[in-house]
Write a structure and sequence with these properties.
By secondary structure, the protein is α/β, with parallel strands linked by helices. It is built from 15 helices and ten strands. The protein is globular.
Length: about 350
């Protein structure tokens, strides 16, 4: 199988964005709080947006299953307060669950958390629990910077995050460390903030000893790990300077990278530097980069082509990247697929 562990509902029906605009107007004091019951999205609306977009490309590119979560830039945890984020997370997670219900053999649920600047991370546990127990989520997106580019939260190794980690371990689900929209004009959302956050998260984990307390915790760093593979030697040297073990011992039992890297040399580097066991196939299709590369004639985010073409993987290793690693790192995904005969 080809399992894509990084998909977002970037093509959600327009009603969702319109309702969010009303909620934003409320946070700015320009309107009353909108009632979630007024948001009406039919199954046909969902089918139209999925079949013309993600499902069409999955079929064309040869991927079988996508872990599907709310649009990352729409999480926008910096907007409003915790109550606003709780309502918004519930709506977005329910919508992704409907996609999975309509296409149970093609999509599995990934959930967003109702994080908010200055809110205790423990406040997200209730929605995490609901997403897993009621919606069948196999992962969650964890935003290390709910402030939207101002980085007001403590590092991921801080004990304030521990209630979330405890639940992740209990439920046997990994978290993808994924920021949202940048409200800081110094950081372009997808070109700077996302990749900065990937690199920052890795460095925070390298500096700390989180996995001494949570040896079974699994974290996925998206977008190929940001700058991490390119600067592997720098991080190895920093680990030595900090008195930490080699990266493989210190982090790689718990930290994984996806293949959302949009050119062949990038995938070649990733697969040469990072152990195969730590690489998970993903595309984030219809996401940050949606155009066709004029040099290749194919979409930038058609990452399966790069994995197929790299000479750094043999067939057995390719099978690990495409399927086996996801089943190992995402036990609930494996059980869900097995229950569906996949």
């Amino acid at each position: 199988m080809i399992i894509d562990i990084h998909g977002h509902y970037t093509t959600a029906p327009t009603q969702l964005g319109a309702w969010r605009d009303l909620q934003i107007a409320f946070t700015e004091g320009r309107a009353d709080a909108p009632d979630p019951a007024t948001l009406r999205i039919s199954d046909d609306d969902v089918r139209e947006t999925i079949e013309a977009n993600q499902l069409k490309l999955m079929n064309e590119r040869g991927s079988d299953v996508t872990v599907f979560s709310p649009r990352a830039s729409f999480m926008a945890h910096h907007i409003g307060d915790l109550a606003v984020s709780e309502t918004w997370a519930r709506i977005c997670n329910d919508l992704c669950a409907r996609v999975s219900e309509l296409y149970p053999e093609r999509f599995l649920v990934g959930a967003m958390l109702p994080q908010s600047p200055r809110a205790d991370p423990a406040t997200s546990v209730a929605e995490l629990t609901r997403a897993v127990e009621e919606l069948g989520a196999v992962t969650v997106n964890l935003n290390p910077d709910p402030s939207g580019g101002n980085w007001t939260s403590p590092p991921l190794t801080d004990r304030s995050w521990y209630p979330i980690y405890e639940k992740l371990v209990e439920y046997e689900i990994p978290a993808m460390v994924h920021v949202s929209t940048s409200c800081n004009p110094a950081f372009h959302t997808t070109g700077a903030h996302y990749l900065n956050a990937d690199t920052t998260a890795f460095m925070q984990l390298l500096q700390g000893d989180l996995f001494r307390d949570f040896p079974d915790l699994k974290l996925v760093i998206p977008h190929g790990g940001g700058a991490v593979p390119y600067h592997w030697g720098r991080f190895r040297g920093l680990a030595m300077a900090l008195g930490k073990p080699e990266i493989e011992e210190h982090l790689l039992n718990n930290v994984f990278f996806d293949t959302c890297v949009y050119h062949q040399p990038g995938i070649d580097l990733l697969t040469k530097v990072v152990p195969t066991e730590n690489i998970l196939f993903a595309s984030e299709m219809i996401g940050a980069v949606r155009d066709v590369d004029p040099r290749s004639g194919h979409y930038f985010d058609d990452t399966k082509r790069y994995v197929d073409a790299t000479t750094n993987l043999n067939d057995a290793q390719r099978a690990q990247v495409f399927e086996a690693n996801a089943r190992r790192v995402y036990p609930r995904l494996d059980r869900a697929l097995t229950a569906r005969g996949l």
